[in-house]
């Protein structure tokens, strides 16, 4: 069983005086998984990462990475884990190739091997054409890709990325995320991604963990989290309707009967109306029933869409719950 998990956190805890930054954290991450660590500022994400890297000692519990206790053998863990901080620095007056070769040399590669490895990685991260350009002239997106090449030099089994897409333009973000997915799928690399960007995390992570005040309050894939949280109303169907002019803005007269009819239908929980759109929450996908009812009422149906709950909604709902406690 141990082999299945590349990262295992057991009751991991960090206290700073009276503050518990990380509170009895239990988490298992499998090989090749892309796991998103999410949470507001101060939730304990960075402290957790530092403990996994053996850079800070837990007050209690254990962080095991590739079967190695990070506190007992931080140097061994460092060999297996590539860490990309949110602000990676390079020598501005050296080219991308020179910077990477320098790091490869620090990793004890011969000059020839360092050059080969650097060129291969520049190709892998899509920077081959700017290999000879000084990194001072690189965009933020290019620097982050070079950062990724930097952490890949030592052939890590795990990469930990802290807000890797901060300040990158949308195209650069897409390219960076594609690169991460490729590394995980093609090379079996395990990726831990700490981020505030819910949409990005949703696009690439197999599983996410939501952190609040040092505690992991939920973890799972998006569909599972969504089903757990929205079990009382898993579907929202939005119907754009064309109602006769001169009706009231709240609920046009023509729709009052329609609303009653819909509410009389099994599995439809609520119907609201705003600016030409009916919002219908249901326990199953009732699109067909809704479309028929609208058409039969005589209101024009101009659009019908089903909303799937995303990470934004999941996040929102968890925090609403937390605040209510
Ligand atoms: N060296 C330290 N000494 C005292 N308190 C600390 C120390 N490092 C972190 N903390 C506190 O521990 C808590 C967790 O901080 P941490 O940096 O792990 O959160 P985070 O989730 O990474 O936040 P961010 O998204 O802002 O990076 C915060 O309340 C922080 O102030």
From TrEMBL:
Ranges where the ABC transporter domain occurs: 7-238
Pfam families: ABC_tran (PF00005)
Transport found in the keyword field: yes
UniProt keyword annotation of Zinc present: no
Keywords: ATP-binding, Nucleotide-binding, Transport
UniProt record similarity statement: Belongs to the ABC transporter superfamily.
UniProt xrefs under PANTHER family: ABC TRANSPORTER, ATP-BINDING PROTEIN
Protein name, UniProt field: ABC transporter domain-containing protein
Organism of this sequence: Compostibacter hankyongensis
